[in-house]
Amino acid sequence: MTHNLESLSPAYFGMVMATGIISITAHLLGFDGIEKGLFYLNLAFYVLLWVATVARFWLYRREFLLDVIDHLRGPGFFTLPAGSSVLGSQFIILTDYTTLGRALWVLAIVLWLALTYTIFTAFTVKEEKPSLDKGITGGWLLAVVATQSIAVLSALVALDMPQPYKLGVNFLALSMWLWGGMLYIWMMSLIFYRYTFFRFSPGDLAPPYWINMGAMAISTLAGSLLIMNVKDAPFLDSLLPFLKGFSVFYWATGTWWIPMLFILGIWRHVYKRFPLEYDPLYWGAVFPLGMYAACTHEMAKALGFHFLDFLPVSFFYLALVAWAVTFFGLLRSLRPSQLKG
């Protein structure tokens, strides 16, 4: 077990992100039993992962810090603020314990600030750097997801705040939404360039490439919540056409990625016969499916696009199946025979 702790993936909080968004989507679609069960399970995941993360830092500090500045593993740490934001959103949407939701909001912001300026400063100043094809993956877009997760939670926190704090928190949500969009453009340009101009093997197509879509889905959700908060912030009303246009733009971009990612998945596992085995990074593929269901539901509500109402239910079931398969893979990986390695 100590070996597993030593090599614990920084991206493991993707399990909290995936479980949390499916729970929220279940609430939006009226599946109360699933909503509550996944909420309590997510609380357990969150606590256990924090215990494991702190223990790893205490026992294997060198390996932990080397991961922070590693081009491939470092971006996985952005699942910490993203997971905290998703759980905070659960507290605000699903429970009466909104104070806990606000506490997780503050924690997520602190984690985001610390990780953003630590990781990207390290990537900038380190002397030995990998080439583009070896150093960038879809996992880099977890920085976008973390940024947009704070935009989402900020928009939710603003609902119950008095003025003038309501204005300030909505402005924070807007700022994070805009920065997340700019960050996606920067990173996606590099990732798409790596896709099309460098040799691509099945092993390169890791599950975090689904974040290509997930980053756009959570950007759509944040934009939709800002549209619904227009009544509380006059400056949002002045930006309403922009908010609507870019929310649809984000949704359309995320939708374009879905068939492409399925095709690449078939190429990887069917044509190239790459083994399908449990990897904690697969939670990064479950989360985008649940987020697409949630964002489509909220965009349809905000913009009156009710002709899209069939999509949230369809992707909710798909996300639920993906979550169950990945969770079963996790349980199998924890068998004693697996822990011996």
Which features does this protein show?
341 residues, mainly alpha, single chain, disordered C terminus, 15 helices, 0% strand
SSE map:
Layout: H1 2-6, H2 14-29, H3 32-59, H4 61-68, H5 79-94, H6 98-125, H7 132-135, H8 142-158, H9 165-197, H10 211-228, H11 234-238, H12 240-271, H13 283-303, H14 310-333, H15 336-339
Helix pairs in contact: 2-3, 2-5, 2-13, 2-14, 3-4, 3-5, 5-6, 5-8, 6-8, 8-9, 8-10, 9-10, 10-12, 10-13, 12-13, 13-14
Report what the structure shows.
- The chain is an all-alpha fold.
- The chain is 76% helix and 0% strand.
- The longest helix has 33 residues, at 165-197.
- It has helices at 2-6, 14-29, 32-59, 61-68, 79-94, 98-125, 132-135, 142-158, 165-197, 211-228, 234-238, 240-271, 283-303, 310-333, 336-339.
- Helix 10 (211-228) packs antiparallel against helix 12 and helix 13 runs antiparallel to helix 14 (310-333).
Quick summary:
The chain is mostly helical and 341 residues long. Helix content is 76%, strand content 0%. The longest helix has 33 residues.
What is the count of DSSP helices, taking H or I runs of 4+ residues? 15
Q: What is the CA-based Rg, rounded? A: 19 Å
| DSSP strand tally | 0
Mean pLDDT: 91
Helix content: over 70%
> Which sequence of SSEs, written as H and E, runs from N to C?
HHHHHHHHHHHHHHH
* Structural class by secondary-structure content: mainly alpha
